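Per your request, structure below.
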């Protein structure tokens, strides 16, 4: 049974429009192309963004909404996987669409926030450093939005490289993967572990930025071992370093922080730890039993 996506799709590889697949073979995930006109479905009766509020002035009812030209970004980032672009390993390509995320200029935000974006601390904002070679600005892909374009359109665009190396560009795939696989955690975890811990980390960064930076350098990611993600009764906090043990100061901060979490949680949630493990020593099977939660200072999409 075919989807509407299959309607009209070429039935052979040679049946694709001339030059489309060969042009796509030159593109990779993380390349930059001109941003198409953005359209999303919204409701003027319940406006959320400025675009939908503008539509509410003259329209009623749910409808497609076109982002105003003055707000339309100059560039967009290819977020689809490289192997899904030309589908070079497939005898018959079956994926006519590619996903893009708009790239916006955030040079107006303060330097502290720009630094956090550069370091990947906002999981939905991705710094695209090489675009400054083409225009002044602080260029950031906004991964909260992904927009489909047909491959025929994409093949006709002139791409730019947004990153200086293949290794650097791999951050795109990691960011997309994290957004997709980020585990859903229950209310008890959010109320008694995640939010209080974010507050403590924020206080550390504000009061002792050097100590916060040292912690970021020493702790590759944090994780938890839980009896249930959605209805946890037991949570063990685990700090994962890579190649060396964290310093005594970092370990002391985490022990004191987890003690404070325990005091606030009371009897409703058992909070254990912290336990310190090294990624170069932890077995793959033991790591897979954990719920990994990225670097401690990484911002979640709702922060």
């Amino acid at each position: 049974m075919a989807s509407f996506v299959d309607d009209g799709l070429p039935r052979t590889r040679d049946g694709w429009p001339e030059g489309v697949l060969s042009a796509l073979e030159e593109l990779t995930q993380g390349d930059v192309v001109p941003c198409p006109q953005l359209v999303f479905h919204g409701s003027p009766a319940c406006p959320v963004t400025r675009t939908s509020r503008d539509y509410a002035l003259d329209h009623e009812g749910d409808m497609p909404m076109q982002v105003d030209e003055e707000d339309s970004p100059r560039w967009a980032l290819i977020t689809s996987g490289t192997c899904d672009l030309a589908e070079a390993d497939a005898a018959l390509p079956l994926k006519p669409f590619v996903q893009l995320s708009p790239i916006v200029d955030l040079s107006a935000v303060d330097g502290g926030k720009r630094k956090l974006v550069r370091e990947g601390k906002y999981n939905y904002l991705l710094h695209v450093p090489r675009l400054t070679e083409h225009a002044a600005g602080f260029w950031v892909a906004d991964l909260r939005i992904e927009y489909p374009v047909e491959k025929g359109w994409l093949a006709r665009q002139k791409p730019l490289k947004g990153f200086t190396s293949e290794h650097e560009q791999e951050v795109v795939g990691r960011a997309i993967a994290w957004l997709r696989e980020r585990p859903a955690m229950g209310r008890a975890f959010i109320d008694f572990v995640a939010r209080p811990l974010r507050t403590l980390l924020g206080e550390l960064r504000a009061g002792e930025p050097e100590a916060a930076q040292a912690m970021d350098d020493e702790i590759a990611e944090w994780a938890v071992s839980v009896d249930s993600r959605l209805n946890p009764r037991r949570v063990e906090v685990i700090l994962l370093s890579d190649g060396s043990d964290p310093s005594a100061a970092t370990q002391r901060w985490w022990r004191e922080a987890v003690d404070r979490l325990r005091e606030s949680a009371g009897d409703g949630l058992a909070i254990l730890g912290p336990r310190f493990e090294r990624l170069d020593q932890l077995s793959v099977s033991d790591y897979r039993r954990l719920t990994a939660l990225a670097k401690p200072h990484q911002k979640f999409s709702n922060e």
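The mean pLDDT is 91.

Regards,
D.
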